[in-house]
From TrEMBL:
InterPro entries for the chain: FAD_synthase, Riboflavin_kinase, Riboflavin_kinase_bac, Riboflavin_kinase_bac/euk, Riboflavin_kinase_dom_sf, Rossmann-like_a/b/a_fold
Family listed: Belongs to the ribF family.
Keyword Plastid: no
SMART domains reported for this sequence: Flavokinase
Organism of derivation: Seohaeicola zhoushanensis
Name of the protein in question: Riboflavin biosynthesis protein
Gene assigned in the entry: ribF
Start and end residues of each Riboflavin kinase domain: 181-308
Any one GO molecular function term: ATP binding
EC number(s) reported in the record: 2.7.1.26, 2.7.7.2
Enzyme class (EC, first level): transferase
Keyword Phosphoprotein attached: no
Reactions the enzyme catalyzes: riboflavin + ATP = FMN + ADP + H(+); FMN + ATP + H(+) = FAD + diphosphate
Gene Ontology biological process terms from the UniProt entry: FAD biosynthetic process; FMN biosynthetic process; riboflavin biosynthetic process
Function of the protein: Catalyzes the phosphorylation of riboflavin to FMN followed by the adenylation of FMN to FAD.
Length: 310
């Protein structure tokens, strides 16, 4: 998958794509539907996704609480798995935010990227002040010579599939409900960093990952699937993970600590993708380390049973 960050510098072979447009946070079933429509709309054209980095919400409210379901690398990996040929990951800055809806259509879609067809959700808004609607984009397409398809919103049972609904499910400790809307397990991806090695001392060495910039699921212990994406231990594993602030040790900064079953090795600096499968329990502060160790053993036993049934 090729990545293009500046719409003013696009190679001829990357023009003419049929592209889905949106933020694609989580790359949920609704997003996947939009991408599939873009694929079918022009099967002989490169399949593209047009999105923005940073997320416009981060640009306009940089001090707001973290909300993203996935970072840019995790989004890229998911889009590549879906067969996207070219990712137009455009820099969202003051200049981009000041474009009117018509200027965005003309300068970015037509003159810059040369898209042949675009697909957007029915609730799509664009341009300065989010003044443009999906219907406006369709009108610009007719006037400027590119195709437009407006995709209906997707529903899972009685719930509209959306990043907001997925964040709510995760906040409430319902990772399987989130996965039903995502079409895949919710994954936290990042580099293994150094910790205080308490897990090693307790007999459960963990791979620690920071959670900065991401929406925080319910704090507690999860049954997890783990992909080590690089390094000598690259592969697939099962495990149990603790997400939160470690109240037993008076922690303050949330992180993710993952214990990989039947694993021995050094993962520092490796990139992990940790899938939250089931929420086992909330965070607790135990009366003793022995009680904590016993509970960790029980958590791992329960995780093995859950993951073995997948």
């Amino acid at each position: 998958m090729r990545i293009i960050r500046d719409y003013q510098f696009v190679k001829p072979e990357d023009r003419g794509a049929s592209a889905a447009i949106g933020n694609f946070d989580g790359v949920h079933l609704g997003h996947q539907s939009v991408i599939d429509i873009a694929r079918k709309a022009a099967p002989d054209a490169p399949l593209g996704v047009l999105t923005f980095e940073p997320h416009p919400r981060e640009f306009f409210a940089p001090k707001a609480p973290p909300f993203r379901l996935m970072g840019r690398d995790a989004r890229r990996h998911r889009l590549e798995k879906l067969g996207v040929d070219v990712l137009f990951e455009l820099n969202f800055n003051a200049a981009m935010s000041s474009l009117s809806p018509e200027e965005f259509a003309r300068k970015v879609i037509v003159q810059g990227l040369g898209l042949s067809h675009v697909v957007v959700g029915a609730d799509f808004c664009f341009g300065k002040g989010r003044a443009g609607t999906a219907e406006d984009l369709a009108r610009f397409g007719r006037e400027m010579g590119f195709g437009v398809t407006i995709a209906p919103l997707l529903a899972e049972s009685d719930t509209t599939v959306s990043s907001t609904a997925i964040r709510k499910a995760l906040s409430e400790g319902r990772p399987r409900d989130a996965a039903a809307m995502l079409g895949h397990w919710h994954r936290i991806e990042g580099t293994v960093i150094g910790g205080e090695q308490r897990g090693r001392d307790l007999g459960f060495p963990t791979a620690n990952m920071a959670l900065g910039g991401l929406h925080l699921p319910a704090f507690g212990v999860y049954a997890v699937l783990v992909d080590v994406l690089d390094g000598p231990h690259k592969g697939h594993y099962q495990g149990a993970a603790s997400l939160g602030v470690r109240p037993m040790f008076d922690g303050e900064v949330p992180n993710l600590e993952t214990f990989l079953f039947d694993f021995s090795g050094d993962l520092y600096g490796s990139t992990l993708s940790v899938a939250l499968v089931d929420y086992l329990r909330g965070e607790e502060k135990f009366d003793s380390l022995d009680a904590l160790i016993a509970q960790m053993g029980a958590d791992c036993d329960r995780s093995r049973v859950i993951l073995g049934a997948l």
